[in-house]
Amino acid sequence: VPSPGPLEVLVKVHYCGICGTGDVDTVGRLSGEGFVDKSDIGAANGAGFNLDKHFLGAGLGNWNHLQFLMVRTHQNQGLHFFRQIHHILPIVYSEKDKLGLFYNYTRHMMLVKQRYQSANEYNCRTVQQQKTVIPFQSMKALVLKAYNEDLVMEDLPVPSPGPLEVLVKVHYCGICGTDLKIVGGKLPGIIHLPHTPGHEIAGEIVALGEEVKGLSVGDRGIVYLYTTCHDCELCRTGRENICYNLRRLGFELPGGFAEYVKLPAYNFCKVSPESKLEEMAVLTDAVATPYHALKSIAPLKEGQSVLIVGAGGLGLHAVQLAKLAGVRVVVTDVKKDALEAAGRFGADLLVNSAEVDPKKAVLDWTEGRGVDVVLEGVGRQSTVSWSLYCLKPGGTLVIMGYDPPNPITVNTKDMHYNEWKICGTRAATKQDLVELIALTEAGKLKPVVSTVLPFGKTNEGLAAVAQGKTLGRIVIKVM
Predict the structure, then answer these.
(1) I need a surface site. Which of 65, 251, 315, 365 has the fewest CB within 10 A?
(2) How many degrees, rounded to 5, is the angle at CA 202 between CA 190 and CA 268?
């Protein structure tokens, strides 16, 4: 009886249908044309199979593709064959039919036996993977112990990865505006003190759980920050970023303002050895959030127009992404240097909303028609009140920024008459992040990192973000 793995279940089969692809004629033909003789069956039995005891029908149609776990060795106990066939029903055929069914199977067994025979009796590949030994026990981490106070550097135990997890040595972690909300206590019910923030993580794998496949110690990459169930309706339909069971690194889970962080292997996204990790780190949120908004929430077509409200950490990347889509871009902000940066990345119109009426400027630019999409990166009543009216009829306003204590109101009559849509957007999917890695490594996208600070100056970085003194992202060099 098979033993279920960490994410598997063992099912007692009550019923199973027989599909036409498991063609009985094939079995009869193989046995009737003399492909099988007693030596094949003897070889199968010699390899550890009793034909009568182990026989099960296999509904795969093409017997050349029966699936099995071919070979396993365990210390010096000799050679053992195990098979893992798609089990269907114990169907009773004649002895000749049984011979026909097992023809290809036994043939494969003998080929395997020959292939792996060597000077060491049988040099067989093992499927066992040893869990990496972690040679260190403690790490430095920045801990939020009280709201509205500095993070405190503490020694914490290094987390041990579970069977399907990896341990990542954090090289860089970006500072996001949401980190200010966490420190300021604006996310009640989500953050539980003491807490280690940080969700824009880049680093390398230093340890693997025993069930992890496809990754190796030393792999460099960035972290998809959402851990999800992979099996709710939303996950199954490609919307894992709003999974019912979602948790986030740096929010509900310990984050990247630490020397090490553990996470599901699924969440680790490899990057090329040539990639700059300090830049790749900010893909996980600062770039992924506007990418998801413009790709999935309000997809833009070539020749359309978008208004980006706020040229900060998300807005400057939104400009690049919109230009890659071939659309016309207008950017509003109150900071001259931010607007100049947006211009360097290709924005078609720059509007300083502290100096001119931004709504009038946008409507004049579009000859009174309005833009197709507004990407609202501030999330306050003061900006939504005018930016909504920059939309053309049928347009979409996407809420990318948010201010938890201050809700936003809209005029429902105007919404009704114009068929405007207001949508939220939440981070991104892992696939979004994988696509962004490809765009960045191809040189089509430039992550905007203004400053890299040492780990010990993280509080200074948070203060700089709070004071609006940054252009793009501040990134912390952890190790």
Answers:
(1) 65
(2) 75
Tens of pLDDT along 353-373? 999 999 999 999 999 999 999
For strands 473-477 and 449-454, give the pairing.
parallel
List CB contacts of 362: < 8 A, sequence separation 6 or more: 307, 330, 332, 349, 351, 370, 371, 390
- pLDDT tens for 129-176 read 445 667 678 999 999 999 999 999 999 999 999 999 999 999 999 999
Cβ-in-10-Å burial (0-12, 13-18, 19+) of 247 comes to middle
pLDDT for residue 17: 86
Residue with tokens 């193989």: 30
Task: Say how many C-beta atoms besides its own lie within 10 A of residue 456's C-beta.
Answer: 11
Tokens read off for 45: 């039995």
Instruction: Tell me the per-residue pLDDT of 46-104, one tens digit each, with 9 for 90 and over.
Output: 444 333 333 333 333 333 333 333 333 233 333 333 333 333 333 333 444 444 444 44
Residue 87 DSSP one-character state: B
Whether residue 421 contacts residue 376, with contact meaning beta carbons closer than 8 Å, is answered with no
How, if at all, do strands 260-264 and 200-208 pair?
unpaired
Q: Which amino acid is at 472?
A: G
Give yes or no for a contact between 286 and 176, defined as CB atoms under 8 angstroms apart.
Answer: yes
The residue whose two tokens read 């939440």 is: 426
Q: Cα(48)–Cα(468) distance, rounded to whole angstroms?
A: 71
Separation between Cα atoms, residue 284 and residue 225, nearest integer Å: 7
Nearest Cα residue to 101 out of 66, 152, 77, 148: 66
Terminal Cα distance for the chain, rounded: 47
- Rounded Cα distance, 237 and 81, in Å: 39
The C-alpha angle 237, 283, 347, rounded to 5 degrees, equals 105
- Give one DSSP letter per residue of 43-81, joined into a string: HHHHTT--HHHH---BTTS-GGG-----EEE-TTS-EEE
Structure pTM?
0.76
Render 434-472 in DSSP notation, one character per residue.
Answer: HHHHHHHHTTS----EEEEEEGGGHHHHHHHHHTT--SS
Q: How many Cα atoms occupy the beta-carbon half-sphere of 307 within 13 Å?
A: 36
